[in-house]
Amino acid sequence: MTPWFGLIVLLGSWSLGYWGAEACTCSPSHPQDAFCNSDIVIRAKVVGKKLVKEGPFGTLVYTIKQMKMYRGFTKMPHVQYIHTEASESLCGLKLEVNKYQYLLTGRVYDGKMYTGLCNFVERWDQLTLSQRKGLNYRYHLGCNCKIKSCYYLPCFVTSKNECLWTDMLSNFGYPGYQSKHYACIRQKGGYCSWYRGWAPPDKSIINATDP
Fold first, then answer.
1. Is 91 labelled a binding residue?
2. 138: closest CA among 171, 115, 116, 163?
């Protein structure tokens, strides 16, 4: 599962009733952006699944047991089913049944929750303590801030509501230290800056990732 939320590019050609080539491509997204841009954010366990005949390859419908909701109380206060494309080439998501609790994000269409590979989806036991705190309150505080991606140097913030996201510059790539341990929160004076909380410093990465 790739915790990326963003651009979906489908490359395909129709030939003799088949897709000639298909791909799911997602742009990197910080977990806070994924949280703020989602209609629904929940912790849940998958307890069942079925394939229904919708779309070119069908739709997987997962039955879930919702443990906690972090975002989406007015959209859908209780989620029982989540929908995703059956094909991974169309960004469909594969989840284990009766095995793990997941952090699930997605959008609501026609009263149904949809998710996929470009949404932030992760096993709950793989989230850091800072990410869990972010889900509870920190990410919400930063939804008016903008996280600006930096892919190569030099890169700069251009307004006071921006935080510079430099995980892609480190040798470890994405997801990196800022994704795992930082939230971008508005401070006094209206400026947004990275907030780390109690996460221990990591001296193995470049200074640009440790604001």
1. no
2. 163
64-92 residue pLDDT tens? 999 999 999 999 989 999 999 998 889 99
> Residues 33, 52: contact at Cβ < 8 Å?
no
**Contact yes or no for 122/1 (Cβ under 8 A):** yes
Distances in Å between the Cα of 23 and the Cα atoms of 28, 50, 57, 197 are: 16, 23, 14, 38
Residue 115 and residue 61: Cα distance in Å, rounded? Answer: 10
Domains of the chain: 14-124 (2.40.50.120), 128-209 (3.90.370.10)
**Is residue 87 exposed (0-12), middle (13-18) or buried (19+ Cβ within 10 Å)?**
middle
Residue-wise pLDDT for 160-201, tens only, equals 999 999 998 876 666 789 999 999 999 888 899 999 865 443
